[in-house]
Structures are given as structure tokens and as C-alpha cells.
Amino acid sequence: MKKITHRARFAAAGLAALAATGVGVAAAATAPVASNAMHKGVGVNEYGMTQAYLNGRTVSFTYTQGFYCDRHVASAATSGCEVGAPFKVAPAKSFDPLYITVPLGFTPPTMSMDCPTGLVCVDHPGTIDLSRLESALKGLYPQLSASQLTAALKNTAVPGHEHFITTANMRQPEWWDVDVVGVTSLKEWNTINAHKSFKFLNQQVQKKMTTGIIPTNLFLYFGVN
């Protein structure tokens, strides 16, 4: 098991990422984005921590096992992970949701995020397939042709994000099903983070202040400290 002493590690150097949007689509690269996978759908086992929001407070996660992405869901990413389609087969009978917020069209201060853009968080995938969201993301990348955008979205770096959970699961480690919420303004991003709760985040989703909740085939494994 690889020990991670910082909450995230740098992704492969030399990537030409379109960081202005916070989505992190790699338009061109001198080296492929690292998948952080042992093989498709199964992450490298690492040990480390990140933070998250739970019921109005900040908590910490301890990760001890690599990610899982359901291979029954088609994905062009080297990690086997996909946004825009729910899992079909879970890695366990019991799990809880992990909601991640992703900035769209703006860039928060990099190191203010639980998992910053341009870094690969411990036991997270390094790449993900966003191509199912292409129609929604197209306006963020006017400099890319349709074919360039499609190619980039199929295997892009996982964007920076924040974590929101609804339970501590009695401090016991378990699998967490990842769902994504896109936030389209820095003001809304800061408002959501100030409340530090999924309850408020979900209120903003219902008010259409954000995107809807987008499913993935991705699970992360951690315990809440």
C-alpha cells in the first residue's frame, strides 16, 4: 500500500489543461494523464486523508483502499470511470452517497478545494470520461472543435472538487457512491461552502442554482474521522 503524506499528489507534468473553467479538460498533452489505477476500474491502494463537509462542519476522511469504477458501465477513460451514467454493480451491499461539487466556468483558489484542480487526490482516479456531458460542456470550450472536445472529454483529468456527505457511518470505513453537482459561479460556490452541508447544497440544486445531481459509476473507500 502506498502512503500519501499530503492530501493530494501532482498529476503528470506537461499537460496542456484548460484550467480556466475548473473542469480540467486536457486539450493536448505531451504525456498521458495518470489514471491512478492498477487496471481499469480498480484504483491503486494508497493511504491518506482529505476533508469534507458534514452537517455544517468540516470533517476528515482517511482512505485505505483504491477507487472502484463499475466496468459494466462503458467508459473511455483509462481509469474506467464515467460521469453521466449510474453504476450497475456496486462493490458492496452497503454504501452511502458522496456528493462532490465541481466549479464550471470559473476557478476557485486552487488549494482551497478538498481536491484541487491539477492534483490527484489519494485513492481517487486520475482520469474520468465526461463525454456524456459534452452537450452541456460545449459552451465552456469555444476554442475546441467538436472532434477535439469529444476526444478530450473521453479521458480527461478529474477536476478539482469539494466533498459533501450526509452521515459519518459511525466512523466506520465503507464504500461511497460518488455523485456530481456542477456550480457555475464563484458566488454560489462560496455560499454553498459557507453552509458546509448537503442539505443546503440540495436546496440550491432544487432551486436550479446549480446543475442537477449527476450520477457516476465511481466509488471511493474511506472512513470519517
The residue ranges in which pLDDT falls below 50 over 5 or more consecutive positions are 1-22, 26-30
Distance between the termini: 20 Å
Helix content: 10-25%
Give the integer mean of the pLDDT values: 87
What oligomeric state is this? single chain
Q: Which percent band covers the strand fraction?
A: 35-45%
Strand order in space, largest sheet: 7-8-15-14-9-13
How many DSSP helices?
Answer: 4
Radius of gyration: 16 Å
SSE sequence, one letter per element: EEEEEEEEEEEHHEEEHHE
Q: Main β-sheet: number of strands, strand sense, barrel status?
A: 6 strands, mixed, barrel
Structural class: mainly beta
Shape: globular
Q: Count of DSSP E strands?
A: 15
Number of domains: 1
Topology readout:
Blueprint: E1 2-3, E2 8-10, E3 15-17, E4 26-29, E5 37-39, E6 42-43, E7 46-54, E8 57-69, E9 95-103, E10 119-121, E11 127-128, H1 134-137, H2 146-154, E12 156-157, E13 162-165, E14 174-183, H3 186-195, H4 198-206, E15 213-224
Parallel strand pairs: 1-7, 7-13, 9-14
Antiparallel strand pairs: 2-10, 3-4, 5-6, 7-8, 8-15, 9-13, 11-12, 14-15
